[in-house]
Amino acid sequence: MSSTFFGLTIAGSGLSAYQTALNVTANNISNADTDGYTRQTTTRVTGEPLRVHERYGQAGSGVVTTAITQLRDEFYDLRYWNNNGGVGEYEQKNYYMSQIDTFFNDTDQIKGYSSILTEMFNSLETLKNNPSDLNFRNQFINYTQSLCEYFNSTAITLEKMQEDANSVMYTKVQRVNAIAKEIACLNKQINIVEQQSPSKANELRDNRALLVDELSLFLPVEVSEEEVANSNYPEDKTGATYYTIKVNGHNLVNNYNYDTIDCIPRKDKINQSDVEGLYDFKWNSDESNIGFASNALTGELKGLYDIINGNNSANFKGIITAIETNEGKDANGDQYFYSTVTVSDTNMAEEKDMTLYPEGTITLGLKEYKYTGYVVNDDGSFTFTLTEKATDTAKLINSKAAATVGKSVDYMGIPFYQQQMNEFVRCLAKLFNDIHTKGIDLNGDEAGIFLTGKDLITGADLTLSDEDVTSTSDSYNQLTARNLKVSDVITKDPSKLATSSDPTLGVEYKDILEEMAKLYDKVDITASGSAKNFLTNMLSDIAIEAQKARLFSENYTNVSKVIENKRLSVSNVDLDEEGIEMVKFQNAYNLCSRMIQTMSECYDRLITQTGV
């Protein structure tokens, strides 16, 4: 038969179980507003029954609390982390694209392209009525310089935005590295706690989940946690888990180990108008590229990378058609060998399209080489001079391997809009100059160029006179929105402005001015159309990208809120529900106490009032 005092043991187990349940409820209520806290609950099972020598065979031994567990749904966690990458990516794109949209639009406070362009051509119309008047000439020159300064300031603004995004990306990468380290440390702490006791390290797990929430905003994460089996007895679990976080297939966190992302300042510019000091990003462990150019990635870092480097896949591309090995001597007279590589079928056969920096890195097939300059040949092909001898030359030529400079980033980011402006100002300057150089100035001399660029190193005006186009030639490929200006010769002496091509017809003859005036809306300057239509088409691209970024940002944010609400419905603390639980456990605890009191009275009667 069972012990006479067995009832006390049963009631005592109830007191212990419901005391634990009340403590957990108190903890839930205390953390109702704690960020990242997951509601906890106790798991109770019946105690192991005892065999007694009675007809009923076994007697229940009360209740046992086996664990304090978190109420968390892994499905909603995974969905939240997957969606969070989209939230981060399009928040960044929306932020920067809305700024770009503002820069290019006319406002009541700031004159934009359309207003300045209209004023310039209106002053040209005025000059047509008084071609020889120096005051009207000065007015037209000044309004033209204002247009140049508009492009200068816009280019500078885009550069500053690129610098800002680059700095923000660096800061966020450092935060990713810090999170990876914290998670690896937490993994170790969690395993130590859970291997030493049957309980779960709930608070540590909350901290880890909160870090993964933050990490998923920066990068797309693949989270995995597996129980570790005993090496001798695979069916037995050790109590430890193996926790990994992968980014695009690469282990960012591998249980107790973690990798970091290195920010490496570029030695060479990829795009002609890039600012100095842009970063490339590689994994520290194997120096492999992160792959931000891939559309498979999402997150804030992807959004920033696209803004900084997005060239609409318009980086230099071509087919290798010839490689020659050359011999040279260095400053010490030592012999060395280098190669010249000819690339045909490029996407930059015209000067207006060129985005190449004078020197940089070119990829031939799968290998990168440093180039020190290039020459554009008569057939439109490019010949690059490398600093070393190329390898596998026959294979590269026979397989028609690709040659590329920079990365193809399929997004209209800052480099794309910089190149759009560069293309326009080159075409505009060439058309103005072709018209102007056909004329005669007030002194009867042949006119020089009207629009030029400032050499950012020497400060002198570009002559734009070289017929051969090279990496260092004084030609239109050196002209950008950043350095566009009216020629100093004309600015200092308005009489050098040509208005007529035939001095015999008198100073009031204005055929040059009339031809220039057609550039406003009658002559196509680029594929975008006339000067008047240029910004309209560019703004259309900007508006579409800005609207897309805004729409996707709103959509991802709304989906995130839905998922978060689902997640909170499981794991968040509901004070009303906890109140009900508190009353329930209080009543159970009181009844267990009452049971002990009742049993005590029975034992008192048995012991003190029963005798032989």
TrEMBL record:
Domain Flagellar basal body rod protein N-terminal: start-end pairs: 9-38
GO biological process: bacterial-type flagellum assembly
Keyword set includes Secreted: yes
UniProt domain Flagellar basal-body/hook protein C-terminal: residue ranges: 567-607
Domain of life per record: Bacteria
Flagellar hook-associated protein FlgK helical domain boundaries: 97-309
Subcellular location: Bacterial flagellum; Secreted
Record has Amino-acid biosynthesis as a keyword: no
Primary localisation category: other
Keywords of the record: Bacterial flagellum, Cell projection, Cilium, Flagellum, Secreted
A Gene Ontology term for the protein's cellular component: extracellular region
Entry's Gene Ontology molecular function annotations: structural molecule activity
PANTHER family registered for this protein in UniProt: FLAGELLAR HOOK-ASSOCIATED PROTEIN 1
UniProt record similarity statement: Belongs to the flagella basal body rod proteins family.
NCBIfam families, per the entry: flgK_ends
Protein name per UniProt: Flagellar hook-associated protein 1
Taxonomic lineage of the native organism: Bacteria, Bacillati, Bacillota, Clostridia, Lachnospirales
